[in-house]
């Protein structure tokens, strides 16, 4: 196998929590991301899924090195960028781009589409052959917008169109990797598929690798080749799409899968509905051992005393890892492509 494009080992982000009379004393930390390993290969779409607050956005920002981790290591194209300075990161900034969830707040309302999309070229002092305007117009066309809309303002566009403007901006510097943080969750369901299809086309045609962050498994189902499931700062399962959907091992993955809407109503009969009870525990003081144990119907004493490692399980195919003392291999939803 070729060298990974991006690799994280033991990646950790603990945010300090301050207290005391003038909020100067550190009284604890939010364990937003706690020692995760993941690998993204050139040109692949890697999905990262989990409930709100589990640490997905923080992971995305760490991978794009918008945040510096409190521990662990990030390697990009063979180079350790964990603690690289702003200056050292400059050449990499153009190769790793982000698309944000909210197309309303991520575009400056006072700037024209032309200047928004040309922004990264301006910041990096890049003059493409034919000029910036021509390049912006090509990019607008690539994302399915009219190049003549160059002089318009964000408020003149619908939510889906604004997200396309954000995608065009992310493409401006010909990135090798795009971290897309819930890029469709703020959009109407009818528009979501159009934007996902656009990203899928870019991944295929331009060979761009994606880290696609979503809070449910329905969105990444047709987009990501490999998917990691995250719970309270930890990765609990990672597998190829077919293995994850067809042979989930971790109880939390089962629960997430059971809430994915099924296109074929007949298959509902095979579906076991799992309703998770209780809230996700606080990341300030997460449970010892397995973090999912407080909501897990299979939990036993060992789950409280020992944290299960993320390992290859005998009941799973090669490369399918799960962190559970009592994994199960049950067909929940057959993969239908
Ligand atoms: N700058 C920060 N300072 C302190 N805590 C933070 C900071 N950023 C995130 N957190 C906390 O870290 C945890 C993980 O947040 P994060 O936004 O990464 O989760 P998420 O899975 O992306 O959630 P969502 O889907 O709601 O955006 C949360 O408890 C959040 O409140």
TrEMBL record:
<dbReference type="InterPro" id="IPR017871">
    <property type="entry name" value="ABC_transporter-like_CS"/>
</dbReference>
<dbReference type="GO" id="GO:0055085">
    <property type="term" value="P:transmembrane transport"/>
</dbReference>
<dbReference type="Pfam" id="PF08352">
    <property type="entry name" value="oligo_HPY"/>
</dbReference>
<dbReference type="InterPro" id="IPR027417">
    <property type="entry name" value="P-loop_NTPase"/>
</dbReference>
<dbReference type="GO" id="GO:0016887">
    <property type="term" value="F:ATP hydrolysis activity"/>
</dbReference>
<feature type="domain" description="ABC transporter">
    <location>
        <begin position="17"/>
        <end position="257"/>
    </location>
</feature>
<dbReference type="InterPro" id="IPR050319">
    <property type="entry name" value="ABC_transp_ATP-bind"/>
</dbReference>
<dbReference type="InterPro" id="IPR003593">
    <property type="entry name" value="AAA+_ATPase"/>
</dbReference>
<dbReference type="InterPro" id="IPR003439">
    <property type="entry name" value="ABC_transporter-like_ATP-bd"/>
</dbReference>
<dbReference type="Pfam" id="PF00005">
    <property type="entry name" value="ABC_tran"/>
</dbReference>
<dbReference type="GO" id="GO:0005524">
    <property type="term" value="F:ATP binding"/>
</dbReference>
<dbReference type="InterPro" id="IPR013563">
    <property type="entry name" value="Oligopep_ABC_C"/>
</dbReference>
<protein>
    <submittedName>
        <fullName>Peptide/nickel transport system ATP-binding protein</fullName>
    </submittedName>
</protein>
<keyword id="KW-0547">Nucleotide-binding</keyword>
<dbReference type="GO" id="GO:0015833">
    <property type="term" value="P:peptide transport"/>
</dbReference>
<comment type="similarity">
    <text>Belongs to the ABC transporter superfamily.</text>
</comment>
<keyword id="KW-0813">Transport</keyword>
<keyword id="KW-0067">ATP-binding</keyword>
């Amino acid at each position: 196998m070729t060298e990974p494009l991006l690799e994280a080992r033991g990646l950790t982000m603990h945010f300090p929590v301050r207290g005391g009379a003038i909020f100067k004393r550190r009284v604890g930390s939010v364990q937003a991301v706690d020692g995760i390993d993941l690998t993204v290969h050139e040109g692949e779409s890697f999905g990262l899924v989990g409930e709100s607050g589990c640490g997905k956005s923080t992971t995305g920002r760490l991978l794009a090195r918008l945040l510096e981790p409190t521990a662990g290591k990030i390697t990009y194209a063979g180079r350790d960028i964990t603690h690289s300075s702003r200056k050292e990161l400059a050449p990499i900034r153009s190769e790793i781009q982000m698309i944000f969830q909210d197309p309303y707040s991520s575009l400056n309302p006072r700037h024209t589409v032309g200047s928004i999309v040309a922004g990264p070229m301006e910041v990096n002092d890049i003059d493409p052959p034919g000029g910036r305007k021509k390049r912006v117009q090509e990019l607008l066309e690539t994302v399915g917008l009219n190049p003549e809309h160059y002089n318009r303002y964000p408020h003149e566009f619908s939510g889906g169109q604004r997200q396309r403007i954000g995608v065009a901006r992310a493409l401006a510097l010909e990135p090798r990797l795009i971290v897309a943080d819930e890029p469709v969750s703020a959009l109407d369901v009818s528009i979501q598929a159009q934007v996902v299809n656009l990203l899928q086309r870019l991944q295929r045609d331009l060979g761009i690798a994606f880290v696609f962050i979503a809070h449910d498994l329905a969105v990444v189902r047709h987009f990501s080749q490999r998917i990691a499931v995250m719970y309270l700062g930890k990765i609990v399962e990672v597998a190829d799409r077919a293995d994850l959907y067809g042979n989930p091992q971790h109880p939390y993955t089962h629960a997430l899968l059971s809430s994915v809407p099924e296109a074929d109503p007949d298959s509902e009969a095979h579906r076991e509905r799992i309703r998770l009870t209780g809230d996700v525990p606080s990341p300030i003081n997460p449970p010892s051992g397995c973090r999912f144990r407080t909501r897990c119907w299979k939990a036993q004493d060992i789950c409280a005393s020992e944290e299960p490692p993320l390992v290859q399980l005998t009941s799973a195919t090669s490369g399918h890892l799960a962190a559970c003392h009592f994994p199960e291999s049950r067909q929940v939803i057959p993969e239908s492509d």
